[in-house]
Design goal:
single chain; 4-stranded antiparallel beta sheet; 8% helix
Length: 306
Amino acid sequence: MSIRSLAWLIGDVRGAAAYRYGARDSLGHLMDTAKVIHSPAGGYLAVYHSGQVCHLGSSSDLMTWTHRAVVDEPATQPTIAIAPDGGLVTAAEFNDGHGGQLRLRYWPTLGALLKSHPAREFLAPRTLSACNEGTPSIRRIVFGPDVDASTIEVGFHYHRRCRVDRQAQGTLTGFAHWTTAADPALDATVMRAAAGERIGGNIGDRDHVRYLGNDYDLVEAQGREGDFGSWRVYLVDRSTMTARRVEVVTHRGSMAFANPTATCLRDPAGRDAVMVTLYLHVEGAAAGEAGSLLYYRPVVQPAPPT
């Protein structure tokens, strides 16, 4: 599938098999910046934040979520992935009032996660910004053979010169050693795709998607610094480092979209599907659409419009 077709698949909310605006869990917690994966026990898991607390929810239908545990606090912007041994890895933007830092945790079983008992934890020192580093996304996890010989690759943002967010990548080895580097190539690819729409604000949260054998990044970028109504989403093909803007079409015509995630999974009907989550700031949202938006699209679709 071309990047154009995948961007269309992700962006057409009105064609979703199911969708939910302003999502909350069974306890009424906001499901902001949700990331959804298959559960090792069957069904689905999601991590998300409400205020400064990161939560875990479970679901059988991808739309109705039962609160199960607290994953991290004080923290926001969580993500989650399955480890090679069947355990789970979470990452979040930890912030105790002294600026954001990445915190990664390893949970050897789902039971450990449900009891909020991580077996390993690493709080990454800031290396690229004196002010803030956060919005983690997990790109790859390798165990050689276990967590003590693991390599975890993540994407994140750093607050460049304490003014605007830009892209970076980090590697955690053995849950003890942390290395980082800025990712100006990803920043430049997103800027080129803006096609004349200047990106004067942040290039922040992103998610990594492996789809039909190809690797993509789904990245948020802000047209004007401080303007929450100018957030847009871009899809980057990692093999060619080309990108295009995802034209998100909601039911009532919202215009601004942030904190994108996408996960390839089997939907409740057993079909290959792409599960997407977005955050719709009030400044760019249509009536009734603000907050966390969850939806999924079966992969088998008619060709996108020309």
